[in-house]
Amino acid sequence: MRIAKHALVAAALIGLCLTTDARADEANAARAKQILKSMSDYIGAQKTVTAKFEADLQAITQSLEKVLFSSSGHLVLSRPDKIRVSRTGGYSDVELTFDGKTATVYSRPSKAFARLDLPGSVDNLIDVLQGKYGVVMPGGDLLLTNTYDDLIAGVMEAKYIGHGVVDGVECEHLAFRNFDTDWQLWVELGANPVPHKYVITSKTVTAAPEYTLRIKEWKASESPAADAFAFKAPDGVKEVALEALTDIDELPSSTSPQAGK
Fold first, then answer.
1. What is the distance between the alpha carbons of residues 248 and 243, in angstroms, rounded to a whole number?
2. Can you spell out the DSSP letters for 63-89?
3. What is the DSSP pairing of strand 102-107 with strand 112-117?
4. Which terminus of the chain, N or C, has less C-beta within 10 A?
5. Which fold does the domain 32-259 belong to in CATH?
6. For residue 8, what pLDDT band results from cuts at 50, 70 and 90?
């Protein structure tokens, strides 16, 4: 009888521990999602934004060697329907401009550009470029008016990791798991919850390569000049179809390693 009582007490304690752990995990996940939502609300409310960024893309060669490719760039966003983004790396120098009606992708090394008639918002532009044309824009989801809904879709697990420092800025470190990717965000602590670092790990690719985006000098600014989002083709530059535009990727065109995007 005494053994049975001890067994019941032990079972009750184990059940209590499991319940407590489950509640702690739920509270932790809720905190991570709340910080992500606060970031989304803050970003979505900003009408005009400028920022600089640096990106590191890991690629896996056929011999399973990890090779890192780096690039940097600048963006100007004016909601709801204007954006200019430039990115320069060792193998590309590309610029995207959008004035609410026409999107232009310009490759300086190729001395060529492609135009797309895409009237609508920046949100629609990002969706169409990635969904219809396969133009991968890691980090583009951070620019959406409601980035929370886009990022949280498909999340199976959310965690609040703690504090971290990115480029001298104290941040809250969040981690999320999807079916085929793990991703992390470092969001500035305090009244300006902007993202400072974004890491995407591709779990379904051999050796799990990563894409790392560091966002610097994020500023809410005054509206830029009216012609800031107009593309003017330089002399000697030709217009081609988007599919024919070369040297716009972060990887050298002569190689085809698996990349962490």
1. 11
2. T--EEEEEEEEEEEEETTTEEEEEEEE
3. antiparallel
4. N
5. outer membrane lipoprotein receptor (LolB), chain A (2.50.20)
6. low
